[in-house]
């Protein structure tokens, strides 16, 4: 059995990411409305080959062994995927996979993945029924096929993660989604908040006030369900969690105890904030590698910082001037730059870039007004 100890050890995000997402291919049979990758039906001949893939895994493992997630497109479009997974597992890397619910997902394939040592399987469900989910995924039958695949997964006794993108199409069905997560016996519900990149559109997004409403609902829900909840592209959820914890402990925001709560949130000793020991953000504990080896702060922030075919991933992550900027919240602009939560939250850098063209600008979908700005307003 592979030890997971290195995965849970504290890490310096200046040197090592907590999580690496590798888009092994962009090929996919689905036509999802929000697709970040703008996936294609056929594989790109420029994809990393098997030898390049193994070299990349060696480099990832050397960076304090972060979590590695194989994504796409649909990872199962690669006929050598399980060979790559097996190599990673033998190197001691903790791996997960997010395949699309297509005919590629068979019980035999899932058993082979388990036999190679895949630690978790993640499927996407974006609605509590097939009408909503299939519309969002752009393919009829996607919901039924996903449920069927989940039944296979349970038969194989593999842990199940469900990914859900919150949008205008499903925000009114959160309670039904919670009930479905319980019914499906998930270990983790990973809730994504839409960023208008790829096929994602501004019109599909929920409002800033709706973000806040969903965050509060998630926190309340997290205290009663028997599965974990984490968020993606919702860094300000951490601020909401810390505010709730301060209120529960009856800590005034001007007290030194509140500053200690903030420090705990930045260093990773606060519970209920997801699996990372401290919050990750684009390029800050998080790194993304495209199907052709291009490196980005995340899959939602389309600013290339290097390519693993010509430069080692550790060097790119540690030395890129752009990534160094992203890892310094004191360089953020607007209210994010003066917010007392900036080292805990920092706002979505990808959403800031999508809205303004500047990845250092403020998170445009956050309603919170920092304390220093409230004081200035009261002084006028």
CATH topology-level fold name: TIM Barrel
- Provide the succession of SSEs: HEHEHEHEHHEHEHEHHEEEEHHHHH
Q: Average pLDDT, to the nearest integer?
A: 86
Q: What general form does the structure show?
A: globular
Structural class: alpha/beta
Low-pLDDT ranges: 1-9, 265-275
Number of strands: 11
Number of domains: 1
Look at the structure and give the CATH class.
Alpha Beta
Main sheet properties: 11 strands, mixed
**Number of discrete helical segments:** 15
Name given to the CATH architecture: Alpha-Beta Barrel
The helix content is 25-40%
CATH homologous superfamily - what is it? Aldolase class I
Radius of gyration: 20 Å
Report the β-strand fraction as a percent range. 5-15%
Distance between the termini: 63 Å
What brief labels describe this structure?
380 residues, 11 strands, alpha/beta, 11-stranded mixed sheet, disordered N terminus
Q: What order do the helices and strands come in, and which of them pair?
A:
Blueprint: H1 5-8, E1 19-23, H2 50-62, E2 67-71, H3 81-90, E3 95-97, H4 107-116, E4 120-124, H5 130-137, H6 142-155, E5 160-166, H7 174-184, E6 188-193, H8 208-222, E7 228-232, H9 236-248, H10 256-267, E8 281-282, E9 285-289, E10 294-296, E11 306-307, H11 313-319, H12 321-326, H13 334-338, H14 349-356, H15 371-379
Parallel strand pairs: 1-2, 1-9, 2-3, 3-4, 4-5, 5-6, 6-7, 8-9
Antiparallel strand pairs: 9-10, 10-11
Helix pairs in contact: 2-3, 8-9, 9-10
Task: Describe the 3D structure.
Its cofactor is [4Fe-4S] cluster. This is Radical SAM protein, BA_1875 family. GO terms for molecular function: 4 iron, 4 sulfur cluster binding; catalytic activity; metal ion binding. The structure is a single chain. The chain is of the alpha/beta class and about 375 residues long. It has one domain (about 5-320): TIM Barrel, CATH 3.20.20. It is built from 15 helices and eleven strands. The protein has helices spanning about 5-10, 50-60, 80-90, 105-115, 130-135, 140-155, 175-185, 210-220, 235-250, 255-265, 315-320, 320-325, 335-340, 350-355, 370-380; strands spanning about 20-25, 65-70, 95, 120-125, 160-165, 190-195, 230, 280, 285-290, 295, 305. Strands 1, 2, 3, 4, 5, 6, 7, 8, 9, 10 and 11 form an eleven-stranded mixed sheet that branches. Helix 3 links the parallel strand 2 and strand 3 (about 95). The N and C termini lie far apart (about 65 Å). Mean pLDDT is about 85; it is low at about 1-10 and about 265-275.
């Amino acid at each position: 059995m592979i030890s997971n100890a290195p995965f849970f050890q504290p890490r310096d995000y200046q040197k090592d990411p907590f999580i690496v997402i590798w888009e092994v291919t962009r090929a996919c049979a689905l036509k999802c409305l929000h697709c970040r990758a703008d996936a294609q039906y056929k594989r790109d001949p420029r994809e990393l080959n098997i030898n390049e893939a193994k070299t990349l895994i060696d480099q990832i493992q050397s960076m304090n062994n972060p979590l590695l997630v194989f994504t796409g497109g649909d990872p199962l479009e690669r006929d050598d995927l399980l060979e790559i997974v097996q190599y990673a597992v033998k190197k001691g890397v903790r791996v997960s996979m997010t395949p699309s619910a297509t005919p590629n997902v068979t019980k035999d394939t899932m058993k082979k993945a388990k036999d190679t040592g895949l630690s978790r399987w993640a499927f996407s469900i974006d609605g509590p029924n097939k009408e909503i989910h299939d519309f969002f995924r752009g393919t009829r039958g996607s919901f039924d096929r996903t449920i069927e695949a989940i039944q296979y997964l349970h038969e194989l006794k593999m842990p199940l993660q469900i990914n859900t993108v919150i949008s205008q199409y499903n925000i009114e069905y959160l309670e039904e989604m919670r009930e479905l997560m319980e019914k499906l016996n998930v270990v983790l519900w990973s809730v994504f908040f839409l960023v208008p990149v790829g096929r994602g559109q501004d019109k599909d997004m929920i409002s800033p006030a709706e973000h806040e409403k969903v965050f509060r609902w998630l926190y309340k829900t997290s205290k009663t369900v028997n599965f974990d909840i984490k968020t993606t592209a919702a860094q300000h959820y951490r601020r909401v969690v810390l505010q709730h914890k301060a209120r529960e402990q009856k800590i005034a925001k001007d007290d030194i105890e509140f500053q200690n709560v903030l420090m705990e949130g930045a260093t990773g000793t606060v519970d209920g904030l997801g699996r990372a020991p401290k919050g990750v953000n684009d390029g800050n504990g998080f790194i993304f590698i495209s199907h052709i080896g291009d490196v980005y702060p995340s899959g939602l922030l389309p600013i290339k910082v290097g390519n693993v075919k010509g430069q080692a991933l550790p060097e790119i992550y540690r030395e890129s001037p752009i990534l160094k900027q992203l890892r310094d919240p004191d360089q953020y602009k607007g209210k994010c730059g003066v917010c007392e939560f900036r080292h805990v939250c920092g706002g979505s850098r990808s959403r800031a870039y999508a809205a303004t063209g500047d990845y250092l600008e403020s998170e445009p979908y956050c309603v919170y007004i920092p304390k220093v700005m409230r004081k200035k307003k009261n002084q006028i």
